[in-house]
Design a protein that fits this description.
single chain; 312 residues; mainly beta; Neuraminidase; four-stranded antiparallel β-sheet
Length: 312
């Protein structure tokens, strides 16, 4: 197993939902341990990248990690940040009411909050507690880690991923029935991705268009003439088209709706050369020369690829 490269003291090790472990503390660079490969790798520094220790790190139900407070080099911290494992990114969250280190942090499933209790501030023992609360459906958000559900859509925490694009919404402003409830939309314009339809619009969450046989389309085959028919792009074989198979040593032509080819023949250029081969990097023919002294036309001999009649 590869050992971690940094020394640590009063650090945290938090098991992520994918089985990896996030290690934070005493050095500015977090480390991520992957049990599948038994290796450590460097993570992204926190926004406040001072070397902290005595902080808390709590795995949230949305898969993010809340890191709160801790002791910095010369002070205690009231910072809180949210770590997103899928993006290896830190999000600045609301500050604690007071600096707090060496405290306890407990996730409360009943209301989706993290209870922070005790600890100290500049060597003064704290007998206070406070909560970090995740957003409920309908509450404002800027990032999914701020939401208990893990979904931030249209600026509010949403009950589902609500990821149909233009045809769903999770805020009343965007067309949902209520803030925080993903709603399938009917009416807004959209793009169904089909060039053979027009007047595309949402219909109960699905983007659909009307067949348009006058539209232009391309089926991706250079050896067909394309036209829209009943909402589909239909190609007709076109042997007059031009195509390219990407091989410099072939000549290409359309045949039966497909790109056909014939190898470039590298015939000898004269009687002092022999048939050669095509250079795949340049497409040039390279006919080798015959050996010097080989007889050529008119009683000459080949020298350096030329037919010499009076070598003296």
């Amino acid at each position: 197993m590869m050992m971690e490269t940094a020394e640590r003291y009063l650090h945290t090790a938090t098991r992520l939902q994918d089985g990896r472990v996030l290690v934070i503390g005493y050095t500015p660079v977090p480390q991520i341990y992957d049990p599948a490969t038994e290796t450590f790798s460097a993570g992204t520094r926190m926004t406040n990248d001072s070397a902290r220790f005595g902080h808390s790190a709590t795995l949230l139900p949305n898969g993010c990690v809340l890191v709160a407070g801790g002791r910095l080099r010369d002070s205690h911290s009231s910072d809180t940040e949210l770590y997103t494992p899928d993006m290896d990114k830190w999000i600045v969250a609301a500050q604690l009411r007071a600096p707090r280190a060496f405290h306890e942090a407990t996730y409360l499933d009943e209301d989706g909050s993290v209870l922070l209790t005790g600890g100290e501030d500049q060597s003064q023992k704290l007998a206070t507690a406070e909560r970090f609360t995740l957003g409920q459906p309908g509450e404002a958000c800027a990032h999914r880690c701020e939401c208990r559900s893990g979904f931030c859509v249209d600026g509010v925490c949403c009950d589902t991923a609500c990821d149909l694009g233009a045809c769903d919404a999770c805020s009343a402003v965007a067309g949902a029935t209520a803030d925080g409830t993903c709603s399938l939309l009917t009416g807004p314009a959209c793009d169904d991705g089909n060039t053979c339809t027009s007047r595309d619009a949402c219909r109960e969450g699905t983007c659909a268009g009307t067949n348009d046989d006058t539209a232009a389309c391309d089926d991706g085959n250079p050896c067909t003439r394309d036209a829209c028919s009943e909402g589909l792009c239909v190609g007709t074989n076109d042997d007059t088209g031009s195509c390219d198979d990407g091989d410099l040593c072939t000549r290409n032509f359309c045949q039966g709706g497909s790109c056909a080819f014939e190898a470039i023949a590298c015939d000898a250029t004269d009687e002092c050369h022999v048939n050669g081969t095509c250079d795949p990097e340049t497409g040039d023919c390279v006919p080798p020369r015959k050996e010097d002294g080989v007889m050529c036309e008119g009683g000459g001999v080949c020298l350096g690829g030329d037919c010499i009649h009076d070598p003296m």
